[in-house]
Amino acid sequence: MSGSTDEGFVSALMVGEYDSDRILVYDVFRKLGWRLFEARDRRRAMDCLGTNAVQVVLTEGGPQRWNWRHVLNDLRSLVHPPQLIVTARMADDALWAEVLNVGGYDVLARPLHEDEVERVVAAARRQFDRPERTSVRPAVAAGAA
Questions:
Q1: Distance CA 27, CA 23 (A)
Q2: Can you give the CATH number for the domain in which 15 is found?
Q3: What's the predicted TM-score (pTM) here?
Q4: Within a domain: residue 135?
Q5: Total structural domains in the chain?
Q6: What is the full DSSP assignment across 44-82?
Q7: What is the C-alpha R_g of the chain?
Q8: pLDDT value of position 6
Q9: Per-residue buried b or exposed e for 44-62, using 16+ beta carbons within 10 Å of the residue's own CB
Q10: What is the distance of C-alpha 96 from the center of its chain?
Q11: Residue 142: inside a domain, yes or no?
């Protein structure tokens, strides 16, 4: 895959601490010629999103003070919000269903694996460019008030 074409190039933001997985994520992005930004707090993340073209956001699914739900809410304020990928040590079917139902793109189990990071990030990047995609806002469930 070439990082020189628009379609194959990924620019992503990693939000959170990612201490144990940081090197793996950077290695995947470096190998593919993709750009990776990093923000450990909300202010820096929003500054990065305001000044850089980012198609994918990776964020932690744990109970930190700025969890993935807060990230998703902030992404909704953007004109063309990036795809959200949640990473979690407890990546089970319930979390996956919740993330997808409220507008996230996917969930990656931690510890991360190189091939899964590459596959899911590339797929999220392709989804970002789909013409019918207008935002990450979830559809209202039937019967919901």
A1: 6
A2: 3.40.50.2300
A3: 0.84
A4: no
A5: 1
A6: HHHHHHHHS--SEEEEE-SS-SS-HHHHHHHHTTSSSPP
A7: 14
A8: 59
A9: ebbebbeeeebbbbbbbbe
A10: 13
A11: no
DSSP H helices, 1-145, are 22-32, 42-51, 68-75, 93-101, 114-128
137 domain-assigned = no
pLDDT, average across residues 98-107: 96
Per-residue pLDDT for 3 more than 60? no
CA 135 to mean position of chain CA atoms: 14
d(CA 142, CA 11): 35
Residue 92 lies in domain: 11-128
The pLDDT value recorded for residue 28 is 97
Query: Rounded CA gap, 45 and 18, in Å?
Result: 14
How many angstroms separate the CA atoms of 145 and 140, rounded?
Answer: 9
**Per mean pLDDT, which range of 17-21, 26-30, 31-35, 103-107 is the poorest?**
17-21
Distances (CA, A) of 91 to 35, 52, 87, 111, 112: 26, 29, 7, 10, 11
For residue 14, pLDDT beyond 50: yes
